[in-house]
Amino acid sequence: MSSINTNAGAMTALQTLKATNKNLDVTQGRISTGFRVSEASHNAAYWSIATTMRSDNNAMSTVKDALGLGAAQVDIAYTAMDAVKDTLDTMKKKLVAASQPDIDKVAIQKEIEQLKNDLQTFAESATFSGGNWLKVDTAETQKVVASFVRSDSGVSLATIDVDTSKTALFTTAGTDGLLEGGIEVTPEGAAIEGLGSLTGSATLDGDGDGTIAITGSDSVTWADGDSLSFTVNIGGTASPVTAEYDGSAWTLTGAPTGVTLTVNGDGELEFAFADAGDDAAVTISGFSGTHAAGDAEEMGVTNLDITQLSAADLEKMIGHVDEVFGKVTTAASELGAIKTRIGSQQDFVGKIMDAVARGVGQLVDADMEEESTRLQALQVQQQLGIQALSIANGNTQNILSLFR
After folding, report:
1. How far, in Å, CA of 34 to CA of 398, rounded?
2. Of the four, 87, 90, 191, 209, which is 20 to 30 A from 273 by CA?
């Protein structure tokens, strides 16, 4: 039955065309965006999961940057530690050289002073972005962010811990750094400089009495335990003499009878003679001396001074430097292991980010081959729908022909 009030065929064709157009819009949207789920209305569950995972992936990207900063800090510290290790090796060689007899310890000490300065410089220069793991105020655990973790209990960050008590060369508080501290040594008495050119002479009076002040000796400050050696020549007879100072008076050994030694008011050594012989000609020369041995003190690589060390103490100091060298080598190994771990963590984080991106893609990405095929099918359906609607609307025109 045909009706001019109700065109059922046209209504059906129109509904079919609307459905086709709707599906066509969806497919075109997927092709345009590349997403099967681009907003919550498409699939609320998948959209929520994808949005959360994308946010987590952004956080992981920041973690990767943090690992890069940590890797740079470790690399700086390791480079400086390696330089310190080489410097300690050189210092040990200098100590071995200083152990040889008749060696110029003063010249070697000048080289050691430069090595000590290098150790300080290397530690202070190991700074990256304001952080320094080799020179710290207090040895403590530093943290490098390693991963971002989401679990049932919430979000957390995993870290790689760096114990600076194992890497710090210097600390300003707390325990000593690897280069600080030392062993107990007793410095030998140092040679008194400037005595070799000193001399004094005079012809005593008829009774052989008189004094001789040694000009230039006032430049020396005498202390308890200092010693002197010199030669007293009276009338052609030479007597080698040694003198020991106790802080207030000199005790002479080997001196001719009647010879005494004091320090006069001008700070000069002054010899007094009694009964040296009638009109005796006296000459005093060949001065040399040694300051008193120092007190026992703690000496390490940062305050090393070999100029007054005995052979036994030099040997002890070589052992100490070798021990410090071992500690620094171990610390460098620790930094190397941390550097390797950070590198592997960087690779892992990168792979995790890729895996998350693939997982999100599985949920929300459009299958472009499938959508392309569907688009073509829907375009054909659309054309057929238009044709069907046109045919259904044409039926009413056929009814009109019945009234002609």
Report:
1. 47
2. 191
pLDDT score at 154: 62
pLDDT tens figures, 107-116: 999 999 999 9
Output the pTM of the full model: 0.64
Among 234, 233, 219, 271, residue whose Cα is nearest residue 250: 271
Per the CB < 8 A criterion, the answer to whether 133 and 167 are in contact is yes
Please give the Cα distance from 261 to 214 (Å, whole number).
Answer: 11
Of 164, 144, 157, the residue nearest 344 (C-alpha): 144
Torsion of CA 353, 358, 362, 363, to 10 degrees: 20
Give residue 20's pLDDT.
81
Dihedral sign, Cα of residue 198, residue 203, residue 208, residue 212 = negative
In the chain (404 residues long), the average pLDDT of successive 10-residue segments reads: 69 82 78 76 84 84 83 90 95 93 88 95 90 85 76 72 87 82 82 86 85 91 89 92 92 93 93 85 92 80 88 91 94 89 85 86 76 79 81 73 68
Look up residue 217 and give its amino acid: S
**Four-point Cα dihedral 49, 50, 51, 56, nearest 10:** 90
Taking CB atoms within 8 Å and a gap of at least 24, the contacts of 345-348 are 345/67, 345/146, 345/147, 345/160, 346/64, 346/67, 346/68, 346/71, 348/147
Spatial separation of the C-alpha atoms in residues 345 and 358, rounded to whole Å: 20
End-to-end CA distance of the chain: 20
